[in-house]
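ok so for the tutorial part 2 we go from a plain amino acid sequence to predicted structure tokens. step 1 is just haveing the sequence, like this:
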Amino acid sequence: MSRLPLYRQMAATKRKVLEADPDAYVERPSYPRTIRVGPFDWAIKPWDPRAAGNTAAYGMCDTGTLTILIQEGLTLQWEQHVLIHELFHAMHSTGAVRELAFDSNLEEGTVAIFAFQMLGLMRDNPDLMAYLQWRS
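step 2 — the prediction. this is what the tokens look like for a chain of 136 residues:
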């Protein structure tokens, strides 16, 4: 078992395969199964919205269980988009954005909170960054 972080393993594997055969198919990665947002570790799980009786959503963010659900079968780029969308919901719940409702400068306060949250998200989750940089 390699001791390299997942994002380095993915990059090294893709590089080796493509060096050997530039036309080779390289299987796309899956999203990380846990992502740290602020002080919390969120579980990221596949989801069938039809089984839940919800055909309008591509993802869900459950703040009570710290779980993000991503619809199965999406294209890579749409899946990446949905994951980022749900992570913004997670950042909203952990960043006290609701407390800004009465702030006279709501936009600047919200942007400031998301800037700190996004920086922490990127620094704490290199596997997420590798997944988001993957191109199909």
